[in-house]
Design brief:
With 165 residues, the chain is an alpha/beta fold. The protein has seven helices and five strands; from the N terminus they run βαβαααββααβα. It has a five-stranded parallel beta sheet with strand order 2-3-1-4-5. Helix 1 packs across helix 7. Bound molecules: shikimate-3-phosphate (S3P). The site of shikimate-3-phosphate has 11 residues, from helix 1.
């Protein structure tokens, strides 16, 4: 069993992955953490600042592809994974892709540590990015969860129920 969580920054991917991992005993893999290790940097901001977004995207794509054969895990991706060519469509059938959807206003409300989100520094630009990504998330997912009115625990319950069916 492999679960891949996708969605915009602040959608709750990391929080959901942590609790879902406790509940299901599937290993939680945080893609951004692996990128930090590989880049030998302390923060996503530093990678963007010192190496640039293209470098970040290359690592993101390579590491995601390296995880192809991993199993019994929940991969919490970064919000931009869907912009990386066709990496996600390769996963259809290999894992369950779950899109945690939320309105932009909710995302803004929920977003903690916005300082370490280089692509969320300007709210207007973040909104444009959000709008341009929605279609990609929808296209590259198996399951959509509308998280607008759900707590993290409720999202986890919903996923757990889906997995049991
Ligand atoms: C990004 C999302 C971030 C992180 C990087 C780029 C994006 O991850 O990978 O700042 O392009 O949307 P989260 O979605 O976990 O915030």
């Amino acid at each position: 069993m492999k679960i891949i969580l996708i969605g915009f920054m602040g959608a709750g991917k990391t929080s959901v992955a942590k609790i879902l991992s406790d509940k299901t005993k599937l290993e939680h893999i945080e893609l951004d953490e692996l990128i930090l290790k590989r880049a030998q940097q302390n923060s996503i901001n530093d990678i963007f600042k010192l190496k640039g977004e293209i470098y970040f995207r290359e690592l993101e794509q390579n590491i995601f592809i390296e995880l192809h054969n991993s199993d019994n895990c929940i991969i919490s991706t970064g919000g931009g994974i869907v912009t990386n060519g066709n990496t996600l469509s390769e996963y259809k059938g290999n894992g369950k892709v779950i899109f945690l959807n939320a309105d932009f206003l909710k995302i803004k409300e929920r977003l903690e540590d916005a300082d370490n989100r280089p692509l969320f520094q300007n709210i207007n630009e973040a909104l444009i990015l959000f709008n341009s990504r929605q279609e990609l998330y929808l296209k590259n997912t198996d399951i959509i969860i509308d998280t607008n009115n759900l707590s993290v625990e409720e999202v986890v319950l919903e996923i757990d129920n889906i997995l049991k069916v």
